[in-house]
Design a protein that fits this description.
CATH class of the largest domain: Mainly Alpha
Structural class: alpha/beta
Number of domains: 2
Largest sheet: 6 strands, mixed
Order of helices and strands: HHHHHHHHHHEEEHEEHEHHHEHEHEEHH
Radius of gyration: 35 Å
Mean pLDDT: 84
Number of strands: 10
Bound molecules: adenosine-5'-triphosphate
Oligomer: single chain
Length: about 625
């Protein structure tokens, strides 16, 4: 069963007012403003023309119709109505044509900015944010913002203006009836205000729950093999249904809140008009109001009532857009703590034997899940003062018990995380003083769990190689990297190195994926190669062959390798023991074996694990 998705952490204090939040969309929407404003003007023009119609009616009724019965006047009036109607239709079409394209442009721009920012944010951010929450921000939240921008915003402005102008016209046409309408508007304004407060929170809750649901789908699909293998499909379904029910409840809550206000905004104007009708007819009967004015008042009220009834729906769209914008800005406002220095330092020219790697008093603790800020280090120190030097061209194996921090230490070198104290230096330069591009050209890492992309073997292996490397040089790098990583099997794939190896390389075996991932690190020809037990899925013979080739070919590379097996340790020049967050011993395998009790303990644990795997493979009972 997939773990419950974490609640997305809040990373910045968010502005409270809806106008302020939505106005920040201008950062991306600025190029679209002229067309949106023009579209809004045409929509407003159409709406004002609709309001003009009753005035034409009034003139017609009070003039040619009721007084002299002139046919010419009636025909003229009818022509005016026709022209006004046609112009109104043209204006509505213009609004749609003007606003459609810029809306999609803004959505695209915002989506690209979000993706760029996600790529820039440090691993610590991605540790704490679930994929579904980010996916729902990139897709449905941005869709909501686009719809609001091209329809909700424009129609809200147009409707509000129509209501104000229309009420003014009603007052001018028949002030007594206008006053009745104004009195009726007071509860409508109050209701709208109450609606705003209630709907805002529920709109945000629905979006967060939709993000959690997306996370559950993503995790379940990702872990489908585990769910099936352990027969936990029903549990996963139960979990999904529970979350889907929660979301449904929230959506119903939203719909109820909206329908209450929509009902009130639909019924109240009608009730007010009923009162106005009674008053109006009485006044007309007494001769205090002309029939033309009475008809014009009600025709205007009919035009105004449409926007009033729509106000609830438009307010709901606005509050949905606010919730979506809040969620979008929550990510965009997160400042990347791992960034390039203002004045970067260059690396000295590479030496013939690789770089000197130095860890000096390095401390680091993973920020706890749900921490308030990416840079927060409220977790305990995993590394509590690591001192280690790997000389140029040297291969050092890093050993320690499970969870001692070996992977964490490796990840500090290419700045996947930044140290909280101390420094990591490559050829004497603090990695934080280098641009990330320079650093990642100098340092390459191969992980134990190799992530391959849905692309050809060639693209996967050359991922870290400079894009402007010419074709032949890239082919050489590819061939050599595949050779060193003993990944010759790729030539037997249907299209050789051009075979697309499927989503995350799932069509390859674990050992094959590891070798392609290792080739990817080697192809960079880095000064420092970091291997996080990247050969764990290989048999001992292939591992020995790979390591021997590595040592022969990568003479200009300094290697730090996390070792989980005695066979990996044996291939290193020196071994460093990580214990309680510190390096407590560095030396050759035999030195440490003789003098370092913790090393002996770790090695014994490795051997037991190795035998257990071996026995398991050969069907022998494993003593515990
Ligand atoms: N992303 C993370 N967020 C929070 N804690 C983490 C994270 N990654 C690792 N840890 C914690 O840091 C500690 C060190 O983990 P690390 O993976 O570095 O150990 P390791 O020595 O490589 O373990 P192993 O030998 O099992 O691979 C562990 O207690 C682990 O739970």
């Amino acid at each position: 069963m997939p773990p419950a998705p974490p609640v997305a952490p809040t990373t910045v204090a968010r502005p409270a007012s809806t106008v302020r939040v939505l106005s920040r969309l201008l950062t991306w929407a600025r190029p679209a403003v002229p067309r949106v404003v023009l579209g809004g003007c045409t929509a407003l023009g159409a709406s004002l023309l609709a309001l003009a119609m009753p005035q034409v009616l009034r003139v017609l009724i009070n003039g040619p119709l009721l007084t002299d019965g002139s046919r010419r006047g009636v025909v003229l009036g009818a022509l005016v109505v026709l022209v006004v109607g046609v112009v109104e239709a043209v204006l509505v079409w213009c609004r749609r044509a003007l606003i459609l394209t810029p809306g999609t442009g803004v959505e695209r721009e915002m989506r690209t900015s979000l993706f760029r920012h996600l790529l820039d944010l440090p691993v610590a951010f991605h540790d704490r944010w679930s994929g579904g929450q980010l996916l729902s921000r990139a897709m449905s939240d941005l869709g909501t913002i686009r719809r609001w921008m091209v329809f909700g915003l424009v129609m809200l402005v147009v409707s509000a203006t129509t209501v104000v102008v229309g009420t003014g016209l009603m007052l001018a046409t028949a002030w007594q009836l206008g006053l009745v309408y104004l009195v009726g508007a007071v509860p409508m304004v109050w209701l709208s205000f109450r609606f705003r407060t209630g709907y805002k929170d529920v709109a945000r809750r629905a979006r967060d729950q939709a993000g959690d649901l997306a996370t559950t789908v993503e995790e379940s699909v990702h872990g489908i093999r585990v769910l099936k293998a352990f027969g936990r499909g029903d549990d996963a379904l139960d979990d999904f249904v529970r979350q889907a029910d929660e979301l449904r409840e929230t959506e119903i809550d939203k719909a109820r809140t909206l329908s209450r206000v929509s009902f009130a905004l639909g019924a109240l104007p009608e009730a007010v008009l009923a009162v106005a009708l009674a008053v109006g007819v009485t006044l007309a009967a007494r001769g205090e109001l002309s029939v033309g004015a009475l008809v014009a008042f009600f025709a205007t009220a009919a035009v105004v009532n449409g926007p009033v009834e729509r106000l609830g729906m438009l307010l709901a769209m606005t509050l949905d857009a606010r919730a979506a914008t809040d969620r979008y800005l929550q990510v965009m406002d997160t400042v990347s703590t791992v960034s390039d220095p203002p004045v970067p330092r260059p690396l000295p020219p590479p030496g013939p034997r690789g770089a000197r790697l130095e860890l000096d008093g390095v401390r680091f603790g993973h920020p706890g899940r749900g921490a308030a800020a990416v840079g927060a280090t409220d977790g305990p120190d995993v590394l509590a003062g690591v001192d280690l030097v790997v000389e140029p061209g040297e291969t050092v194996a890093l050993v320690g018990l499970t969870g001692s921090g070996k992977t964490t230490l490796l990840q500090l070198v290419p700045r996947l995380y930044d140290v909280t104290a101390g420094a990591v230096r490559v050829d004497g330069v603090d990695v934080r003083d280098l641009t990330r591009a320079d650093l990642r050209r100098a340092v390459a890492i191969a992980f134990e769990d190799p992530i391959l992309f849905s692309a050809s073997v060639r693209e996967n292996v050359l991922l870290g190689v400079d894009g402007d490397t010419d074709g032949d040089a890239a082919d050489d790098l590819l061939a050599q990297a595949l050779d060193v990583a003993q990944a010759g099997f790729v030539h037997d794939l249907p299209q050789g190195v051009d075979t697309v190896i499927g989503e995350e390389g799932l069509s390859l075996s674990g050992g094959q994926r590891q070798r392609v991932a290792l080739a990817r690190a080697i192809a960079v020809r880095p000064r420092v190669l970091l291997l996080d037990d990247p050969l764990s899925a290989l048999d001992v013979t292939t591992e020995a062959a790979v390591t021997a080739r590595l040592r022969r070919v990568l003479t200009g590379t300094t290697t730090l390798v996390v070792a989980h097996r005695p066979s990996t340790v044996a291939l290193a020049d020196r071994v460093a023991v990580l214990e309680d967050g510190r390096i407590t011993g560095v030396g050759t395998h035999s030195d440490l074996l003789a003098h370092h009790p913790h090393y002996r303990f770790v090695l014994t644990a490795m051997q037991v694990e190795d035998h257990r795997l071996d026995d398991a493979l050969h069907g022998t009972k494993v003593p515990r």
